[in-house]
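[job 4417] fold queue: 2 targets
>>> target A
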Amino acid sequence: MTERIWLSLAHMGGQEQRFIQEAFDTNWVVPLGPNVDGFEKDLESYLGENKHIVALSAGTAAIHLGLIQLGVGPGDEVICQSFTFSASANPIKYLGADPVFVDSEPETWNMSPELLRMAIKDRIAKTGKKPKAIIPVHLYGMPAKMDEIMAIANEHGIPVLEDAAEALGAEFKGQKCGTFGEFACLSFNGNKMITTSGGGALVCSTKEEADFTKHLATQARDNAPHYQHSKVGYNYRLSNICAGIGRGQMMVLQEHVEARRNINLKYRQLLNGIGGVSFQSNPSSDFHSNMWLTCIVVNPAEAGFTREDLRLAMEQENIETRPLWKPMHLQPVFASAPFYGDESRVSENLFDRGLCLPSHPNLTDEDLQRVVDVIKGLAEM
């Protein structure tokens, strides 16, 4: 059998081992340490906008701690993009709050500002209080329409927590994703733009928020000679070993971004002229996706095959692909949550027709050609 082509593999830059070895040599094989501090500083320098970074065990942990600091608790509502991975919404339930899902607009596939405005007004009318937070997602590295979303959020006085887990390196109007809201989450899972094996970070607007995040993430231990706790804490900090991987990855982050953008460009060139196959694309020069994953949409009437036909054909050729995210409002766990959409059913249609193609920097031209040949083979049948 031919070698398997994976969807999104980690890619090492060559310097990661040096930072890990330093941790072993100095016996910093515990949570926290110089690599954690260095990794946070590297991220702050990269993102800019005077943000403060706290490295954590996962992007999910970042959303959880961000929501805590926004005062989310039992009985509250949090507006969340429906077209996303469940980690965007699960922390809302951790806190006893309720998600309110908003559908996407077709240009970026991200939260529709028009439907966001509708949801806010309707929730205030129905519950007598406004939602506690808004969670837009920069899906597959494509920036959401953050100018419109932030304007609506500011108009109603509702804080924004960006889910930028897939969008490190992406920009909207020249500003890095993850720097628009009061908080933002980043992810360094093994399939993301850079990896720490497993890990994430909370992007904070102030040093005070970052300090409190660190406090909560280290079991909320009070400043005392003994173990004393006045708040419920969490074991959410990133380890010094994993942060060492991250420091090495930061040295090649921009190379990773450009590599994925280049892969996306090659797919477009190789698939040019194939009917019924379209790409997630930057709507204008304001948007600069990192193209974390190259995503296509299949129109069966034009292509002559379905998304599922293509997925199964890829698997037959030992190529990993994945359907686009199943919207949260269709997930059994969130069946009772309010959902705001319209007749266009953007996220549902994208889920039905969309597929993520292999997109990692390790892909060779031969790998890309294998993927493209499967699509062309179906188109010619």
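>>> target B
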Amino acid sequence: MTSPVVLNEAALTIPSLIAAYWSPAELATNGLILMNLAGALLLGLMVGYERSYHGRAAGMRTYGLVCMASAGLTIIAGYPNYWYGGHGAAAALVDPTRVIQGVVTGIGFLGAGVIMRSGFTISGLTTAASIWASSVIGIMVGVGFYLAAMGLAFFSAMIMIYLNRAVGMLPSRRAVAVTLRFKPGVRPEEEILRKAALERGYEIAGGSLTIGSEKNSQEWRFVALALAGQSGAPLSSLAGELSVLEGVDGFSLSHARN
């Protein structure tokens, strides 16, 4: 049987342990953490607005949560003496760099989930990169680099909003992903195909040609690049020609993008 003295000591100890979580020092630390979380959330929402505006799968909520959670994990690593109401002495051995490493690794899996590939077209790379940047913003807020975090958020948003317009003003070559399905028994020649592409202002990108065959029908896939200084024939014009081309059973045209 437990002695009354031990019970009395336990009764006094439990309230004191609970009170430690609401001490002035603990409350001040929690308030500072909450301020960091709020700031990281606002920065994440700012970066995510552009993705949300353009209807991407990862929008403001995703960016806000990633940035805020990254800040939360990072900042608590800086106050180990206040863990568990100040009674977690062993927690003082925590290494913040390992926390940051874990955050970046975890965000890598999240970013990989938004990258999709369909033929020669890859989408989601910008979203994945910006999600990773959002986690870095949160980490910078967590360690106290507030000005640098705001700068990174601003630069990230400007890149996604305006850089695409700037790139459009620079010389570039339009790329078109082409899939041609030929009728059974038709055996196209590569040289004729390349010549036809040149006549329409395109050249077949080196190493992009793949040929498949099923039930005596061949399928050719390749990327056509507009010749330097030319825009190339529009997709609607190419589609009109392919629809009446003898030997072609079906086709697919799309802008190759990433």
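[job 4417] complete. Note on B: DSSP finds eight helices and seven strands in the chain.
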